[in-house]
Amino acid sequence: MFGSTVDHTSRGNSAASGQQLLTPTRFVWPYGGRRVFLSGSFTRWTEHVPMSPLEGCPTVFQVICNLTPGYHQYKFYVDGEWRHDEHQPFVNANGGVMNTIFITGPDMVPTAFSPSSMDVDDFSQRVADPSQDSVPRMSAVDLEMSRHRISVLLSTRTAYELLPESGKVIALDVNLPVKQAFHILYEQGIPLAPLWDFGKGQFVGVLGPLDFILILRELGTHGSNLTEEELETHTVAAWKEGKAHISRQYDGIGRPYPRPLVQVGPYDNLKDVALKILQNKVAAVPVIYSSLQDGSYPQLLHLASLSGILKCICRYFRHSSSSLPILQQPICSIPLGTWVPRIGESSSKPLATLRPHASLGSALALLVQAGVSSIPVVDDNDSLIDIYSRSDITALAKDKAYAQIHLDDMTVHQALQLGQDASPPYGIFNGQRCHMCLRSDSLVKVMERLANPGVRRLVIVEAGSKRVEGIISLSDVFRFLLGL
Predict the structure, then answer these.
(1) CA distance 109 to 142
(2) What are phi and psi of 379, to 5 degrees?
(3) How far apart are CA 83 and CA 293, in angstroms?
(4) 439 and 332 in contact (C-beta within 8 Å)?
(5) Spans in the chain with pLDDT lower than 50
(6) pTM of the predicted structure, to 2 decimals
(7) pLDDT tens digits for range 378-399
(8) Pairing relation of β-strands 193-197 and 172-173?
(9) Alpha-carbon distance 237 to 258, whole Å?
(10) Which strand ranges, in their side-by-side order, compose the sheet holding 468-473?
(11) For 103-116, what is each residue's pLDDT tens digit?
(12) Where are the alpha helices (DSSP H) in 346-472?
């Protein structure tokens, strides 16, 4: 959210001819802090203008000031200490190092201070261009060394270290009706659950949001409305067999078979765990242990995710980040994530977005076709409004909404509203649904945010306008760190 717009009519450094023109100018401090203020020649250095944190980016502060044409100097007062932004034009003056900016007016050109003609709003775009000197370049040696150290760490740590001191893991019986399983995931606020087959005495799969998306789409093609009775007749086991038909998974004699369970043991190393998650394109894998050689009487210990593994990496290198040169690289300078292509550029993997008035049916279709777990919801200016994720499908369990709606009649906005009054679902951290970052943010800052529970991706936005510039997922980070 923007802070209040402040008028400043600085004297002595602007063209004064009749009524002065004021230019709204956005100042951004993207380096964190508890309390951040702005002061400068336009306040005569006597007023400290409070800056407000950007919604969704608590480490980014901003304020808009109305400035007169001419040359201005300014500094930031962060937690009781004067600071300047090294990524903006600055000069050494009697008052120390100060940032500079030149606001153009009629018949005015910046002469002695030509670097200051860049508006503060250009901050993220200027830093984002790897060809500019402001972005440190990463050598192949640094990249290889960083990847090697991460690989060594993950190869010497085991899945056992991911187990929490206390907690619960919920498993579902394969003979449960789909409707009941749907409700359990919603009521427990979990995105997925392993499936237990009492007849076989083993875990046979995982039920997650994608299953429900495919179920609702499949049922929707066989009738005008989704009815509670239709969901009641489908057990989880029957659905898994039906899904094998849809996915064309057959055994040697033409019978359909469900996808085998992807699992790990507590003593598997974390690198192998991460590779299993990435190669099988799953959100998590069950950690299962059996003391018997034949694997009978298995115990479900945990659901291992990339988030937990990333937290382990961040914790290990927290006090020795200099040993990983890539951590301080801005994300715009490394091949990471999916970005909106610039004018004239082509993209082999376009970034999918949704409008709030798009139908829920089209949103679910896009999630399946694009093979992604979430899609940013944007307005007509491509500014971020919200995000729709696979796990949001469980909101349809509220008040049995799935039995009362047609996917093409409900909008994405309406679908998201269903979950607003419910208990916090999976994916909300610190009260936020949308987790954002700037293209100038360092890799380590992005990793630390993604290591928080429930945060599976960050939307890259332009400071101020919140225009979507890209998206980075946990999978993107691990593919980069492991060189896949």
Answers:
(1) 42
(2) -90, -170
(3) 62
(4) yes
(5) 1-4, 10-18, 108-135, 223-226, 249-252, 256, 423-431
(6) 0.67
(7) 988 888 988 888 878 777 766 5
(8) parallel
(9) 9
(10) 338-339, 468-473, 457-461, 436-437
(11) 876 554 444 433 33
(12) 360-370, 412-418, 443-450
